[in-house]
Amino acid sequence: MSTVRILISCAANFGWPLHQLDVKNAFLHGDLQEEVYMEIPPGFYKPDMAGKVCKLKKSLYDLKKSLQAWFDRFRRALCGMGYKQSNGDHTVFYRHSGHRIAVLAVYVNDIIITGDNEVEIKRMKENLIKEFEVKDLGQLKYFLGIEIARSPQGIVLSQRKYVLDFLNETGMLGCQPASTPIDPNHKLCANSGNSINKERYQRLVGRLIYLCHTRPDISYAVSVVSRYMHDPKSEHLNVVYRILRYLKSNSGKGLMFKSHGHLNVESYCDADWASYLDDRRSTSGYCVFVGGNLVSWRSKKQSLVSRSTTEAEYRAMSLVVSEMLWVRNLLSELNVLRNVPLRVWCDNKSAISIANNPVQHDRMKHVEIDRFFIKEKIDSGMIELNHVNSSGQVADCLTKGLGVKECNAACNKMGMIDIYHPS
Questions:
Q1: What pLDDT, on a 0 to 100 scale, did the predictor assign at position 422?
Q2: Residue 384 belongs to what H/E stretch?
Q3: pLDDT tens across 4-38, in order?
Q4: N or C, fewer C-beta in 10 Å, the chain?
Q5: Could you tell me if 360 and 402 are in contact, meaning their C-beta atoms sit under 8 angstroms apart?
Q6: C-alpha distances in Å from residue 137, one per residue of 9, 67, 125, 129, 130
Q7: Which of 325, 331, 330 shows the shortest CA–CA distance to 374?
Q8: Using an 8 Å Cβ cutoff, are 351 and 338 in contact?
Q9: Is residue 423 scored above 80 in pLDDT?
Q10: Dihedrals φ, ψ of 25, to 5°?
Q11: What mean pLDDT do residues 31-50 have?
C-alpha cells in the first residue's frame, strides 16, 4: 500500500490521471511449469474412470502456486510490451518514452495505471485486453476497499464504507463517540482484566489493522491492542471498543494528497522510551512524506530493550532511514526524484549530536551498528538530519496516546481531512 500511496502522491503533484483495470479469472491465466494432478471433479466421474486423475494445464484457485503462476504470466506479458519491472517493488512496471512515463501497479487482479504518456497508456490497455480478459473500470475510484475521490484540490483516500459496515456488524453504530483513539495515560499490560473470547478479539483487531491503510491516527492504538492477540483480556477489549467509538466520531476521515509542486522526501521519527510495562521495551514511530503527502508510517514495539532515550531514538531513526532509502530507490527508477538530500526530522538533540560527531565514544558502543549506518548516509550527503521541536513532531501520535488537542493537531499535520463532515 505504500507503493500505491507513492504513485497517488506523484499523480497529485504532476496532475497524472489514475486508471483502474480488473482482470477476470486472473488465476486461470497462469501457466503451470510443474506437473500437477487432481481428483476427478464430482459430476464428471464415470465407472470407467476408476483409478484415473486429471492433469492440470492451467492453475486453479486455491492452488498453492496459482498466484505465482499468474504473476509470472503477467510479468512476461508486460516485459514483452517493453516494460521494466521495478527492483524496489516487483508489482510495479514502468516504461520511459523520452521524458514521459507510464507506470502500472498490480495487486493480484486489480491494476492501477498512471503517468503522463497518454498514448502509451492507451496502447498498454489495448495490449492487456488482447492478452487477458480485462475490464476497464475507468478512473480510479475504489481500490481494495479504499475509496478514492479526486477534485481540483487534490485526491482523498478514505475507508468510510468499511468503517460504517464494521460499526454496524459490531453493534457500535449508535455508540457514544470518543474524541481520541486511546487514553493518554493508559497502563495496559498482559494481565489487565479477565480472559475473553480470543477468536472474536483477533477478528476485531485484524479488521482494525486493515483500516490503518488510510488511518494513521489509530496506528498506535492498534499496535498496542495487537500485542495481546495470543491472550487477550477484558481491558484490552475495552481499548478496542474505544477505537471503534473514536471511529464513530469521524468515520469519513482519510488522507488528502495535494499538489505541492515538488517530490521531495522527508520524514519524522520519534520514540517513547520504555513505554511497555511488560518488558520495558520502547516504541518506535515514523512517518514519511513524498511531495508533501504522507505515504508511509509505522508504530512498532522495538525488538530489544533500550538502555537510554538516545538508544531508543537511534533505533527509530534507523528504521525510518531504511524506509526512506527504499522510497528513494523506487522514485529513482521512475526518474521523478530530485537530486536533493532526504530530510529526517528528530526531536532528540542528543541523537542528532552523536550522529554528526565523528568521534565514537565508549558509552555509545551499544548502538554502534545503528550509529554507523546513519552516519554513513549523512557523510555521503544522502540524508540530512534536522531538529524539530516536540510541538512540531508529527510522529508523536505514533508512539503514545495524545490528548484531544494534540490528536487533532497531529491529524492536521498528517494531511487528514473528513470530506463527509458538514462544513
A1: 73
A2: strand 383-387
A3: 999 999 999 999 999 999 988 766 767 777 788 88
A4: C
A5: no
A6: 21, 22, 11, 12, 16
A7: 325
A8: no
A9: no
A10: 50, 55
A11: 79
Q: At what angle do helices 368-379 and 309-333 cross, to 10 degrees?
A: 40
Could you identify the residue written with the cell 560527531?
357
What domains, with CATH codes, occur in the chain? Answer: 2-144 (no CATH), 158-249 (no CATH), 258-387 (3.30.420.10)
Decide: helix, strand or coil at residue 53.
coil
Q: Could you tell me how many residues make up the chain?
A: 423
Question: Which of 202-211, 309-318, 346-355 is the most confident on average?
Answer: 202-211
Strands 84-85 and 92-97: antiparallel
Q: How far apart are CA 108 and CA 381, in angstroms?
A: 38
Could you identify the residue written with the cell 542528532? 352
The CA-based angle 408-287-353, given to 5 degrees, is 110
Residue range 92-107, pLDDT digits in tens: 999 999 889 999 999 9
Residue with grid cell 527509530, as numbered in its chain: 316
Where in 302-366 does DSSP place strands (E)? 342-346
Measured between alpha carbons, how far is residue 212 from residues 70, 73, 146, 170, 418 in Å? 28, 32, 11, 18, 16
Residue position matching grid coordinates 499490560? 189
Find the mean pLDDT for residues 135-159.
92
What order do you get walking across the sheet with 84-85 strand by strand? 84-85, 92-97, 100-107, 110-115, 18-23, 134-139
Residue 225, amino acid:
V
Q: What is the mean pLDDT of the chain?
A: 89
**Are 338 and 262 spatial neighbours (Cβ–Cβ below 8 Å)?**
yes
Average the pLDDT over 270-280 and give the result: 87
Q: Which residue has the cell 512517518?
A: 287
Mean pLDDT, to the nearest integer, of 77-86? 93
How far apart are alpha carbons 61 and 25 in whole angstroms?
A: 9
